[in-house]
Amino acid sequence: MVLTYGTDQMELTADQTPVLLLRGLLRESRHWLDFPALLSEKLQRPVLTLDLPGCGVLNQQRSATSVPALRQQLQHQWAERYPQYQGRPLHLVAISMGGMLALDWALDAPQQVKSLSMINSSSAGLSPFWHRLQMRNYLKVLLSVLAGPIQREELIWQMTVSSALQPEVLKQWQQWAIEHPVSRINALRQLWAASRFRSELRPLCPVFIVSGLADQLVSPLCSVALANQLNAPLLTHPTAGHDLPLDATQWLVSVIDQNLNEVYRQYNCA
User: Fold this and answer.
1) Which of 21, 94, 210, 228 is 20 to 30 A removed from 249 (C-alpha atoms)?
2) Coil, strand, or helix at residue 48?
3) What is residue 125's DSSP assignment?
4) In whole angstroms, what is the distance from residue 197 CA to residue 123 CA?
5) CA distance readout (Å), 138 to 94, 123, 163
6) Residue 14: what pLDDT?
7) Alpha carbons 195 and 214: distance in angstroms, whole number
8) Rounded Cα–Cα distance for residues 127 and 89 (Å)
């Protein structure tokens, strides 16, 4: 599923560089819910999404087993699905493994990526494995790989959402998992890619690290380590969990807006 917001109402100009949203393990574009539309309305610029190979409408494709290979798959998909934006810069906003992919993208294409906002992400070498995947979730992660779509989404909700249960949203997740199931082999391939990701280089573009302090899946200390390594500001929400766009939607919209305003102030190039 590719979602596009804002392009019907505006003509892309120099100050309307598009924002590309990237999700993480076992998620698809629809899991952003209304965040892309709200962000596009706030920023007054196009907000676009892509599905990872193996997820969403690409669930029949084979997911790569490394972040650089997955990033290349996303770059090819970007070129195919959004030809009108080729040769133009973009801002990347990405969560969890999507943050790893976005960081790798910014390092690979420094002239293309104008800013990077990483949400609840991590890197090997900067954080131990028991921070990158908190030990309390090992059994749930294993069960989520083995389970059917209904139970899998219940387990993912337990690990990633800190706010009160929203039955209608969970039902949506379960319906999407039935419509576009992620195979066990693709789930394992993505887990393997994320577990091995390691980057200690800082991209040329401005970087912002965003963290939910109630994240039960990935320790918030991973965001601290990224912010220190990348010399980037760390913005935290006190009660949001791993799925920060769901737990604190309006707060995150405001944070991304502030981030891009900061890019404009520093570089006059947002």
Assistant:
1) 228
2) strand
3) T
4) 6
5) 23, 18, 21
6) 45
7) 21
8) 31
Which pair of tokens denotes residue 240?
A: 């949001």
E strand or H helix at 10: none
Average pLDDT over the chain reads: 93
Q: State residue 148's pLDDT score.
A: 92
Element (H, E) at 105: helix 97-108
Question: Model pTM?
Answer: 0.93
Single out the residue of 49, 43, 39 nearest to residue 15, CA to CA.
Answer: 43
Rounded to an integer, the average pLDDT of 34-60 is: 96
Partners of 95 in beta bridges: 119
- Characterize the bridge pairing of strands 4-5 and 47-49: antiparallel
- Whole-angstrom distance, CA of residue 114 vs CA of residue 205: 5
Average the pLDDT over 1-20 and give the result.
61
Does the pLDDT value for residue 190 go beyond 90? yes
